[in-house]
Amino acid sequence: MHSTVDGFSYGLVTPLVAFLMACLGGALGLRCTARAIRVARSWRPGWLALGAATIGSGIWTMHFVAMTGFTVEGTPIHYDRLITFASLAVAVVMVGIGIFIVGYKGASGTALFTGGTITGLGIASMHYLGMAGMNLDGYLEYDVPTVAASVAIAMAAASAALWAAGQVRGFLWGLGASVVMGLAVTGMHYTGMAALEVHVHGTADPVAGEPAATLLGPMMVGPLAFLVLAGVVVLFDPLMVAGGSAPPPAERKPGVPAHSPAHHTPARSRLRARGPVEHRSRTPQRR
Fold it and tell me: Mind telling me which residue stretches traverse the membrane in this protein (predicted)?
């Protein structure tokens, strides 16, 4: 039996909050990615890993905030704990692969296409794996062309966001990139939900898993706390907020003192700067 699906049980509250969570995760993660491009290679893996975990947490939190407003007429909705956790891990790992490619190869050409594609596939994989963890008295059916459109939206918008983050042109570029990433996640989510049809069996059998309020509420505490900590890191790194360029480290050579280039003035220049020198004869003068 085909059942009525409602993805907006709380009106526009859940879509707006979900979009803001996606933008927050995107803003922090893309700023970490932009920061990684400008630091020494020894620091780069740490910044890229932080960016991947932040974007993955934002994607996962966005999805399940939106799912709190999802109801199906005629059946309760429960969630499998293991699959729900696995969807978070998939998001972080696949987004991390895409970000590491862009972080080491640059946000242009083949690297950008590859990184954006993998990041978009990570967003889509997280969504559909999270949907697979949903248990109800029925089964889910998807419209294949609409699913393909949702994946294409995720890949295109993720590539655009990584490109904007790689430009490193200040705070406004980072803000724009985060909005694009938020649009990628929420656009992919609701396009994927538009492809969904639910067929309810209509039996009285209990549904396996845990209710959304019991499972998702406590589970979202961890990713939300991580986003707050990542925000603290950004706030205490002025270079990330301002989008400026870090000065390159001075090259140290053996036997050469480390002084500023402004202090290295050639000997002739110093002599010329002093002006003419008065020469005095050492021969005693006759009186």
Answer: 12-34, 46-70, 82-104, 111-130, 142-164, 171-192, 212-236
Query: H or E stretch including 198?
Result: strand 196-200
* Tally of domains in the chain: 1
- Asked if residue 144 belongs to a domain, the reply is yes
- Structural domain contains residue 207: no
DSSP 108: S
274 within domain boundaries = no
Q: pTM of the full predicted structure?
A: 0.75
- 213 lies in a domain? no
DSSP 39: S
Distance CA 225, CA 231 (A): 10
Among 4, 39, 22, 11, smallest CA distance to 185 is for 22
